[in-house]
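Quick one, tokens below:
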């Protein structure tokens, strides 16, 4: 998209999209959010099972992040080994084994207190569910802006999938050279999308994936 002479993406293009999605998330009525989270949790468990992954990396949803408060416990039932991120001082991510313990962290994060495995432990998972504010159909991820997953993604050999609310799988996200593409988004399409998320494989995934769940629609491009 940015070829000869095209202006490089403005930093503010990303922050404008972030602000837009954060405020849309905050504006979601509680009942809609609860139904969407319930459906996303069920779909995420379906993806874990379809992938046959016993070791999974995920995240602890913050207020208004897709998945909600039930995501971690549901994933823990589906995957015997669940790794959750711990934000380090330099904004890189360490990984802790989920053992049911949590403590408050920076930025309103809830972080695991289980055994720390080190930044490279994430290379051992069979599936990564990661947080995003938006994902483009070609796999560019918009995160919270710390650049944490820009550091993490090169260490990951598993499919990388972001649960999203409807409207957050977008045509394009302003890409910068450091951005690594992710493999898929778990997302519904409006109007009933809040209750029916599907797995959309993106066009940018560099990781070979051997499984497709019943609900997947590969590269539907629309
Ligand atoms: N649930 C969850 N866990 C996660 C992430 C995430 O996006 N979601 N991360 C993804 O990398 C890492 C944490 N990084 C984060 C970096 C910035 C902000 C954030 O909200 N920053 C706001 C300032 C908020 C405040 O000052 O209170 C901002 O920059 O505007 C959140 C998480 C690891 N754990
Ligand atoms: N490998 C890296 N090491 C250190 N800093 C990096 C790396 N990659 C990107 N960054 C820096 O991180 C900052 C934020 O990047 P970006 O906007 O892509 O974050 P993000 O993916 O939205 O956030 P997050 O992954 O934390 O949710 C940028 O200023 C970028 O220069």
């Amino acid at each position: 998209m940015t070829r000869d002479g095209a202006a490089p993406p403005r930093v503010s293009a990303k922050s404008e999209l972030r602000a837009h999605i954060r405020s849309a998330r905050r504006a979601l009525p509680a009942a809609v959010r609860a139904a969407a989270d319930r459906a996303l949790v069920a779909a995420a468990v379906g993806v874990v099972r379809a992938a046959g992954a016993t070791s999974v990396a995920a995240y602890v949803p913050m207020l208004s992040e897709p998945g909600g408060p039930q995501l971690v416990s549901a994933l823990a039932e589906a995957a015997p080994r669940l790794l959750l991120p711990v934000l380090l001082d330099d904004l890189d991510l360490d990984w802790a084994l989920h053992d049911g313990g949590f403590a408050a962290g920076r930025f309103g994060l809830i972080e695991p207190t289980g055994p720390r495995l080190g930044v490279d432990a994430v290379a051992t998972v069979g599936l990564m569910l990661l947080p995003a504010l938006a994902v483009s159909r070609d796999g560019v991820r918009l995160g919270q802006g710390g650049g944490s997953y820009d550091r993490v993604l090169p260490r990951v050999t598993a499919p990388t999938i972001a649960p999203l609310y409807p409207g957050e799988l977008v045509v394009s996200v302003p890409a910068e050279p450091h951005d690594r593409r992710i493999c898929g988004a778990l997302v519904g399409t409006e109007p009933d999308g809040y209750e029916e998320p599907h797995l959309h494989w993106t066009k940018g995934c560099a990781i070979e994936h051997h499984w497709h769940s019943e609900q997947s629609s590969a590269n539907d491009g629309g």
